[in-house]
Amino acid sequence: MMDLRRLRCFLVVSEELHFGRAAARLHMAQPPLTRQISALETELGFRLFDRSTRNVSLTTAGRHLLPYARGVLEQVDLTTTITSKLAAGSAGQLTVGYASSIALSDTFSHTIQAFCSKYPDVQLNVEEGASSTQWTQLLEGRLDIGMSRMHPPGDNPQVQAICLDNEPLVAAVPSDSPLAGQLQVNLAELGELPLITFPADYGSGLNEIILGLYRRHGLTPRPAPSGRQITSIIALVAAGRGVAVVPQCTRSLVRRGVSYLPLAEPGACAPLLVLTRRHERSPLVRAFVEVIEQTLRSGQSG
Questions:
Q1: What integer pLDDT is reported at residue 88 of this predicted model?
Q2: Distance between CA atoms of residues 34 and 49, nearest Å
Q3: Nearest CA-CA partner of 176 in 188, 199, 193
Q4: Which residues belong to any copy of the HTH lysR-type domain (predicted)?
Q5: CA distances from 212 to 238, 264, 274, 276 (A)
Q6: Which CATH number applies to 4-88: 1.10.10.10, 3.40.470.10, 2.60.40.10, 3.40.50.2300?
Q7: Residues of the chain where predicted confidence (pLDDT) is lower than 50
């Protein structure tokens, strides 16, 4: 295997075309530098420089070797840099799963923007999916972090859920509904109308929260069409097929035919949960959670 120190000596001499100046750049004496170049020439089987008492110039073979030597050393330097960043947790790959209702929040967009800006050498992958699928994906290693509305079932010793925020729920009603003119709406009023939710088999954490809220107030939701995306749920509201209970951030979906109203019931909220493998050691996972926390502290949640 070619000695990289000799290759670096060759590169510096080729740039300086002067052994004395090259030795100074390399922080070594000139005789050892001369020996390194001679050893490299012996190893390669051809001369790299034409040397006289006045001039040093590259041979034809030396000129042909130069770009390859530069490329090798640049890759070595890059590898060294990336290795250091990997060890420090500022490079690598991170896969984040998120529930569709979270993607509309300012917290989500500001976190992604801030993380990518702070850690440009990290390949960040984001994947939308139902809250219930994130637990399995975490345990299988397909996700590093989940952003969810639903706690893992039971006392799962392998998945940790951290509640970072609670977002108020609001009602989305058709704009031509008598409810649309009110300043707020209560669940009893909503309970008289079909409730649009995610499909029952989708595994939505938001569904669990909304249905639990109805149950606590002694209400049974009237059936309605379902949507697999928060955007399709709002589209169904606009089409007059029912009402929906959604996180406050959904207000950003300004849609003709839809009005958003605060809920009269206090404490009607959807949590923002960050799911990680318990005892997670990855510095990138910790860094991402810290960025979320900083985003929330700065008041950029939505």
A1: 63
A2: 11
A3: 193
A4: 2-59
A5: 25, 16, 21, 25
A6: 1.10.10.10
A7: 301-302
How open is the CA angle 74-78-82, to the nearest 5 degrees? 175
Query: Which residue type is seen at 94?
Result: L
| Residue extents of the structural domains in the chain | 4-88, 92-163+272-297, 166-269
Which of 277, 101, 53 has its CA nearest to residue 202? Answer: 101
What CATH number matches the domain at 92-163+272-297, 3.40.190.10, 3.40.50.170, 3.30.750.80, 2.170.190.11?
A: 3.40.190.10
- In this structure, the strands spanning 122-128 and 159-174 are unpaired
The CATH classification number of 166-269 equals 3.40.190.10
Of how many residues is the chain composed? 302
pTM value surpassing 0.70: no
94 bridge partner residues: 124
Confirm if 149 and 274 have CB atoms less than 8 A apart: no
Q: For position 233, what pLDDT does the model report?
A: 95
